[in-house]
Amino acid sequence: MSSKAPVSDLTGWNRTSFTGSAITHECYEKGTGPGVVLLPEVPGITPEVLALAEHLVGEGFTVVVPSLYGTPGRTETTGYALPVMARLCVAAEFRAFATNGRRPVADYVRALARDLAGRTPGAGVGVIGMCFSGGFALAAAVDDTVLASVLSQPSLPLPLGAARRADPGLSADELDRVAERTTTDGLCVLGLRFSGDRLAPPERFAGLRSRLGEAFEVIELDASPGNAAGFPSAAHSVLTREVRDTPGHPTLAARTRVTEFLRDRLAPARRPEAP
């Protein structure tokens, strides 16, 4: 039983640079099997994000983590996160406050997904977005190479006002294409959030359920006062900071469902054999 989230480091990760849609970011890759693009939450590729990446590698996936912001491998602190967030709020690549926004970073993620799909087994790849990057995973599903999209606590546009709380984090045209793919291509989307998370408001998931119907699976973890798992009311990071390697823990079950979802949607990922 652990009282802290799993962490890892950059040991063994292959560092490359990838350019797509005139945007360049450093990327970290590891593993074999079907491809998964893991988009980091703010402030970047933290030890907790790397622990999730290592988990996916251990489950038989090739994982690419683009460094969209922050310093790869650096531990999160308030003094580190706040300046990163301040820069992101004014960066044209992310359009943090825009409603009905087509974000340049989504084009980059689609290009990265196509590149990964072209050199990994199976018909396509999965994309996981978390927090600031949550909506990018949905926007990536405009591209036919993306067969599975996971949105964990998507927080863009920053939910100031009713319109932004309900905004899905991508443009209407992009959402139309994603909705079309749920009926023509069998695309499925998985969303995760804590019940009291104001950064990923319930209106956002309600709007997506209205558009995507049964193709949008939602996992909502109880963070109400006195909840059985002891989550704080401000619990936010379903797959990283709040994960506990404790059998039966709700976040561990959520992470397991994400793995199953990716395995079901992509080509079967063979578990590594025991040594």
TrEMBL record:
Record's SUPFAM superfamilies? alpha/beta-Hydrolases
| UniProt cross-references to InterPro entries, sorted A to Z | AB_hydrolase_fold, Dienelactn_hydro, Dienelactone_hydrolase-like
Domain Dienelactone hydrolase stretches: 32-151
Q: Does the keyword Hydrolase apply?
A: yes
UniProt keyword list: Hydrolase
Pfam families in UniProt? DLH
Q: Which Gene3D superfamilies match?
A: alpha/beta hydrolase (3.40.50.1820)
- Which molecular function GO terms apply here? hydrolase activity
Q: Does the keyword Hydrolase apply?
A: yes
Name it.
Dienelactone hydrolase
Q: What is the lineage of its organism?
A: Bacteria, Bacillati, Actinomycetota, Actinomycetes, Pseudonocardiales
